[in-house]
Amino acid sequence: MTEKSDKIFSGHCLLLVQFSQAEDSRTYLDFDRIDDGLESLCRIYEGVQINKKKNELGSKDGQIDYELTDLLKFLDSLYDLSALVFNDKAKGYNSHGREWIKAKIYRYLKDCAGEK
């Protein structure tokens, strides 16, 4: 996406997440900015990994290391994942799927790391 089109999608964001086939695993996350939503998905993954590390290894260490591919595999493992992002030009929400979210996370993390 171009910088201009990114600005169109810079507003309010709802992430719709279903963690498993169970209907009661459905939830939504509400953010003022899409970057906040992307950061939240990273934190959810980190929380899952920290809990797994504590349960499997008995570790009390709250720190983990992971690669982008690990995060993307986690996003693929979710039963359903989509985003509703406010489009200021259209004055409405655009729906985006898992692949769009993964591409945005990749770009977001690259930007956070200072890469172009």
Automatic annotation (TrEMBL):
InterPro entries: EHR_sf, ERH. Pfam families: ER. SUPFAM superfamilies: ERH-like. Belongs to the E(R) family. PANTHER family: ENHANCER OF RUDIMENTARY ERH (PTHR12373), ENHANCER OF RUDIMENTARY HOMOLOG (PTHR12373:SF0). This is Enhancer of rudimentary homolog. It comes from Euplotes crassus.
